[in-house]
Amino acid sequence: MGEVVDHGVGEPPPWPAAGARVAACLPRMGGYIEYANVPVRLPAPVPDGLDTLEAAALPLDYLTALSLLDRHGRAAPATPSSSRARRW
Questions:
Q1: What stretch of H or E contains 45?
Q2: What is the percent of the chain where pLDDT is above 70?
Q3: Which of 12, 40, 73, 78 is most solvent-facing, going by the fewest CB within 10 Å?
Q4: DSSP state of 28
Q5: Residue spans of alpha helices (H) in 4-73
Q6: Alpha-carbon gap, residue 75 to 65, rounded angstroms
């Protein structure tokens, strides 16, 4: 859980803006560091009203659910020709 400080070199992406509160699971060890350089696709927005401890749980819950769907539910992206896509 942290705050976006800078986007580095190049044109900044439309999101997350500098100053945005974000949560992310780091791709490597080192979660107790002051600054982390992560890909722009990794951080998730932290909703207003959540404290630091609640926000820190967001990536863990997301990754647990994703892992369960992938490993045990055999989930796959829906395609226009799949019956799953037509039902929704």
A1: strand 44-45
A2: 80
A3: 73
A4: S
A5: 52-71
A6: 11
